[in-house]
Amino acid sequence: MSKILVLAEKPSVGRDLAKVLRCNRKNTGYLEGDKYVVTWALGHLVTLADPEAYDEKYKNWKLEDLPMLPERLKLVVIKQSSRQFNVVKAQMNRKDIGEIIIATDSGREGELVARWIIEKARIKKPLKRLWISSQTDKSIKDGFKSLKPSAQYDNLYRAAQCRAEADWVVGLNVTRALTCKYNAQLTAGRVQSAALAMIVNREKEIHDFKPRDYYEITAKSDKFKLKWQNKKGGRGDIFDKNSAEDIVKKIKGKICTVADVMENDKRKFSPALYDLTELQRDANKIFNYSAKQTLSIMQRLYENYKILTYPRTDSRYISTDVVDTIPERLRAISLGNYKKFTEEILRKKINAHKGFVDNSKIGDHHAIIPTEERVQLSRLSTEEMNIYDLVVKRFLSVMLPPYEYIQTSVKADINGEIFTARGNVVKSKGWKRVYERESSLQNENEEDNQVLPKMKKGDNINIRSIELNKLQTKPPARFNEATLLSAMENPQKYVKLDSESAKTLGETGGIGTVATRADIIEKIFNMFYVERKGKEIIPTSKGKQLIDLVPTGLKSPLLTAKWEKELENISLGNENPGVFSKKMIGYAVKLVEDVKESKDKFVHDNLTGKKCPRCGKYMLQVKGRNGIMNVCQDRKCGYRENVSRFTNVRCPECHKKLEIRGEGQGQIYVCINCSFREKASVFNKRFKEANNKLNKKDVSKYMKKIKEENKAPINSALAEALSKLKLK
């Protein structure tokens, strides 16, 4: 009897599938049962070959050898995971295997993972596709009952292949051109360059900003405040000091009379469910998690615990067929602080309104919501609990009644000048009850929350004081990870574009995808193009110079938006992949010529007085996400060493986080907030003896094991090639 082979993307997912399919016999790299054999990739097992696979001359990076344009890009097995590839290939080639089910992640990159393995292994057996949004037993069983023909996803594979090949042709050529031209470790790519350009341009706006003084006039009564309003425009800003002082003189000591009182009933519905980008934004704002960190936590909650649905989604809605599963999902989360809300929702018929159920707003996957799997909350780490809590509360809030309040607006007259006050009176907290403990999520304007006494037209208000406040206009804020994610999702709001280009950007969902944005942000940190100051992201001299050196088209968000639009059309069968590839080759040729002809210079302005122990050239000091390090300026050498590293260990004197400096036995802990300094070996011995639990939560073996298991390779051919530049 022939068997069916199931190919998963990771070992943890493979084990979940094997459990449902009753594949209990363990083997190296696969699990087997009576009907199914389940095996797995390790992220990508196959990638595009390096340039030197086409010609020996490409082993040495030379400007005159560019552009590199092989007739057909070759696939190669990734050396580090070749053992698992051979296991997968052997199972696929078994004579008793009659059919293969692709069960990699349900998305463009997941399709590429499987198809490249199948192509490299030269398998010609019938293929089917498992397409699911969560890893619960029920979801897997339902998915196997409704397997799709693999041909249904051929266009998705073609789009993924075009993306990978375009990144190779454009990214590797421009990166080599920049690196050779300026003898510096420089990289460029359509998403990375566009994101970095927004950060650099924002820094220029801040630098060029000239603040202006302006004035506000406030009238304070016994219980509330009123603000002066311009009769013409309704604004309260006065840019002329003399005018402001004249108004103050005019109204001082005069009677304040209520001119109008308006009361409006208002309703506010819950924000939409989470997609990955919105979740990453909130996690950064509330918990200061990086985009990469949030994605990693989500992967664990999805794969290991199976309590949340597929994370890499760009939809904030669920489909009508998911509505029937809501009661079961609510029962699964009916514990702790959530219980009273789940019981309230289950007591009535669930109102599947357009605020969270809309088939027209769903792509490959619906919004992130809880699964039907119950969880012991005590098993979750603090960071896992934080992310789970965000998703569950948003899921509950969309099904709870709206927040209702009465908004009162008062208009008053003081000797012919208009003053206004606004206040809200809560009628029903509705969905906001879910967030009663989270003051960080309550972002109403403080002045709108003041309680106004009952007033009517003609009443006099007792004014205790008139204040003239001098303020200054502020420059635009620097990006943090939350706002950078917003800018990558909606770049048309942050970049000056014509209306047609802005429309294109809006339709394509910005630059990058929900799956790649976290990796892009990590990369610009790891390449030292940006550094962190508190939560703010600041471009380094290297980042600023790179944006000056990168050809103009490559740093525009419009380029990647156009790519994504064309790739989407390819995946829908509406565009020829060959036409797209030819365009990319032509574009790569133009970019390389632009770099070759450039008269620009690159200057290292972070040189230290220390020489590289390997090659003797002076080293550069750079600030990474986790601390400061010295890096050899010669890209061919690639030597680097830590100068200082941020830790989670707290200063015993001021309780701020300590830095660790130096290498080996010479390491010392230093507090940059106070004068504390101590040798690391002495500090560790002293505090381990005093408290055996020092930093235990962060270094527990169990958490390390889970995190390691979920560290997938970056799914891009360009990243695979760039990893060999010794940039890390």
From TrEMBL:
<dbReference type="InterPro" id="IPR003602">
    <property type="entry name" value="Topo_IA_DNA-bd_dom"/>
</dbReference>
<comment type="similarity">
    <text>Belongs to the type IA topoisomerase family.</text>
</comment>
<feature type="binding site">
    <location>
        <position position="105"/>
    </location>
    <ligand>
        <name>Mg(2+)</name>
    </ligand>
</feature>
<feature type="site" description="Interaction with DNA">
    <location>
        <position position="61"/>
    </location>
</feature>
<comment type="function">
    <text>Releases the supercoiling and torsional tension of DNA, which is introduced during the DNA replication and transcription, by transiently cleaving and rejoining one strand of the DNA duplex. Introduces a single-strand break via transesterification at a target site in duplex DNA. The scissile phosphodiester is attacked by the catalytic tyrosine of the enzyme, resulting in the formation of a DNA-(5'-phosphotyrosyl)-enzyme intermediate and the expulsion of a 3'-OH DNA strand. The free DNA strand then undergoes passage around the unbroken strand, thus removing DNA supercoils.</text>
</comment>
<dbReference type="InterPro" id="IPR013825">
    <property type="entry name" value="Topo_IA_cen_sub2"/>
</dbReference>
<keyword id="KW-0479">Metal-binding</keyword>
<dbReference type="InterPro" id="IPR013826">
    <property type="entry name" value="Topo_IA_cen_sub3"/>
</dbReference>
<dbReference type="InterPro" id="IPR000380">
    <property type="entry name" value="Topo_IA"/>
</dbReference>
<dbReference type="InterPro" id="IPR003601">
    <property type="entry name" value="Topo_IA_2"/>
</dbReference>
<dbReference type="InterPro" id="IPR013824">
    <property type="entry name" value="Topo_IA_cen_sub1"/>
</dbReference>
<keyword id="KW-0799">Topoisomerase</keyword>
<feature type="binding site">
    <location>
        <position position="9"/>
    </location>
    <ligand>
        <name>Mg(2+)</name>
    </ligand>
</feature>
<dbReference type="Pfam" id="PF01751">
    <property type="entry name" value="Toprim"/>
</dbReference>
<feature type="domain" description="Toprim">
    <location>
        <begin position="3"/>
        <end position="136"/>
    </location>
</feature>
<dbReference type="InterPro" id="IPR013497">
    <property type="entry name" value="Topo_IA_cen"/>
</dbReference>
<dbReference type="InterPro" id="IPR023405">
    <property type="entry name" value="Topo_IA_core_domain"/>
</dbReference>
<feature type="site" description="Interaction with DNA">
    <location>
        <position position="168"/>
    </location>
</feature>
<dbReference type="InterPro" id="IPR023406">
    <property type="entry name" value="Topo_IA_AS"/>
</dbReference>
<feature type="domain" description="Topo IA-type catalytic">
    <location>
        <begin position="153"/>
        <end position="592"/>
    </location>
</feature>
<dbReference type="Pfam" id="PF01131">
    <property type="entry name" value="Topoisom_bac"/>
</dbReference>
<feature type="active site" description="O-(5'-phospho-DNA)-tyrosine intermediate">
    <location>
        <position position="310"/>
    </location>
</feature>
<dbReference type="InterPro" id="IPR006171">
    <property type="entry name" value="TOPRIM_dom"/>
</dbReference>
<feature type="site" description="Interaction with DNA">
    <location>
        <position position="312"/>
    </location>
</feature>
<keyword id="KW-0413">Isomerase</keyword>
<dbReference type="InterPro" id="IPR034144">
    <property type="entry name" value="TOPRIM_TopoIII"/>
</dbReference>
<keyword id="KW-0238">DNA-binding</keyword>
<feature type="site" description="Interaction with DNA">
    <location>
        <position position="176"/>
    </location>
</feature>
<dbReference type="InterPro" id="IPR005738">
    <property type="entry name" value="TopoIII"/>
</dbReference>
<dbReference type="GO" id="GO:0003917">
    <property type="term" value="F:DNA topoisomerase type I (single strand cut, ATP-independent) activity"/>
</dbReference>
<protein>
    <recommendedName>
        <fullName>DNA topoisomerase 3</fullName>
        <ecNumber>5.6.2.1</ecNumber>
    </recommendedName>
</protein>
<keyword id="KW-0460">Magnesium</keyword>
